[in-house]
Amino acid sequence: VQLQASGGGLMQAGGSLRLSCAVSGTSDSIGAMGWYLQAPGKQRDLVAAITRSGITNYGDSAKGRFTISRDNAKRTVSLQMSSLKPEDTGVYSCFADGPYQTFWGQGTQVTVSS
């Protein structure tokens, strides 16, 4: 099973970025999908998650600025990030819950400059 993430990069504060993650290599049903952030020197925190039926959950820092969405047919999850802040900097890892385990992507770097 592979989760291929894309869309990271360098952005100025106040800008926007869109992250995407695609699941491949399994035909098993995928449950919740989402993103975690590993910021420098901090623990990994949930950014946003979305269930198969579309129920969303956001970390406090993402509320009002980020929007998570998914395409069940394409097995993708996306994170639209707006009003970016320097504290959004870090490695964003996508995850997908399979029936027996959670799968993780390799992470994509987002750097927000002030």
- Mean pLDDT figure: 96
Question: Roughly how much helix do the residues carry, as a percent range?
Answer: under 10%
Gap between N and C termini, in Å?
A: 37 Å
Query: Structural class of the helices, strands and pairings?
Result: mainly beta
SSE sequence, one letter per element: EEEEEEEEEEE
How many strand units?
11
Report the portion of residues in β strands: over 45%
Write down the overall geometry.
globular
What is the radius of gyration?
A: 13 Å
Kindly report the oligomeric state of this protein: single chain
The major pleated sheet works out as: 7 strands, mixed
Q: Ranges with pLDDT <50 over ≥5 residues? A: none
Q: Total number of helical segments?
A: 0
Characteristics:
single chain; 114 residues; mainly beta; seven-stranded mixed beta sheet; four-stranded antiparallel beta sheet; 0% helix; globular
Can you give a write-up of this model?
This protein has about 110 residues and is an all-beta fold. The protein has no helices and 11 strands. The strands form 2 sheets. Strands 2, 4, 5, 6, 9, 10 and 11 form a 7-stranded mixed beta sheet that branches. A 4-stranded antiparallel beta sheet has the order 1-3-8-7, with no helix packed on it. A hairpin with a 4-residue loop joins strand 9 and strand 10. The model has no long low-confidence stretch (mean pLDDT about 95).
